[in-house]
Design a protein that fits this description.
The chain is mainly beta. It has a single domain, classed as Outer membrane protein transport protein (OMPP1/FadL/TodX) (Porin, Beta Barrel), CATH 2.40.160.60. Helix 1 runs antiparallel to helix 4. The longest helix has 13 residues. It is elongated and about 90 Å long. The protein starts with a helix and ends with a strand.
Length: 449
Amino acid sequence: MKKSLVVVALILFCAPLTFATLVTNMNQSALYFRLLSRNASTDVDAVFYNPAGLTQLPDGFHFSLSNQTIFQTKTVINGFPLLNSDTYEGKVNVPIFPDVYAVYKADKLAFSFGFGPNGGGGTADFAKGLPSFEWAFSALPSLVSMMGAYTTQYAVDINFKGSSVFWGVQANVSYALTDWLSGAVGARLILAKNTYAGAIANVRINPIFMLNPTGALINAQQFFTTIGQPVLAAAVADKSVDAAQDGTGFTPLVSLNFQPADGLNIGLKYEFKTKLELTNATTVDDVGLFPDGAKTNNDIPAIMSFGAEYALTPQFKATASFNYFFDKDANWDGREAYIDSNSWDLGVGAEYALSESIALSAGFLHTQFSLLDGYNSDFSHEMSNNSIGFGGRLKLLQNLDVDLGCLLTFYDKSQKSITYSFFGIPLGAWPEEYQRKTLALAFGINYHI
């Protein structure tokens, strides 16, 4: 019994260790939101997407500041029949998700700087926990009934909140080798921080025995202490954790930009793998999973990017982008073994200028994951998805414009079968389904001198 209940507590606090997403955040500007394809950018956000394309900017200083507000709901539906509820929701709200870019262009040279959340960027709040945190407690009524005290109910207060943000500070140097070919080299410093806070508290059951003849819910720890079961009492005692992880990494990158024909621009970029090691800074760790000073690996995979943009008319342009993420080569302390093949995404977008001051745009993006059953769980899962984005640009002054964008993401449902057993007693295999939905809004200001 002790092992079964402690395993639940361990799962609760293991969960954040795999909370990072499978790929780098690619939503790094308001322009991205309204087109979903920026790998051939020659605008200010090319600092991130296509540094070699910055040589196409006019000489002078160029600045961009944007922010995204992101709302995401993660839903887990579990069929284990003893649980009080089959549906669990986690809310991810990101009110501030900023990106800052600055470029100085002079003749054939461009120097640029970028800052933004290249990974993570939000807080996930599971106010009622998750099935993996709770299922063993749901078997308590059956166990206590077998011990001779008829029990039909359980209750437990479970909460978990985890945050993750990998800030990126990037610098590039771009140079126009010819009229149609430019190159760039750059580097990004990653400053990573994860925080975890959670608790399992106030485990309650309703055994009918001499001291509780009405079968009211009572504290499980007190019950097991009263009947002389100190091991079980310790297993259901309150447990909590308050810990953080910090680390730094370095990402070299190279980029090429081609203009093989009038109106056609092509961008290529390769970001090398970022070796990232996180170190625990722990305040409370009742279950011993976050030893202060211990280290874990959380590499950011290498990325190969390709993009093309073509102006069909002076008012209308179309663009396409492809990103390939080398996930299998990353070190995630063994979790990479559950990746069947590397992930990728493909985006297309179009923009039409209604006038010199107003442009409207829309885009579509497909993101593909190929994962083995052992990768997804209720506390960390990825699903292939499709996104649509739309928005526009408003030129307020000759050197000042504003971008507005909205993004909606629709995820494929993912399901797996989980086999449960309690004290060696098989409890059957039951389905678990993962669902997700995302809405995000973006606002950006661009200024040129």
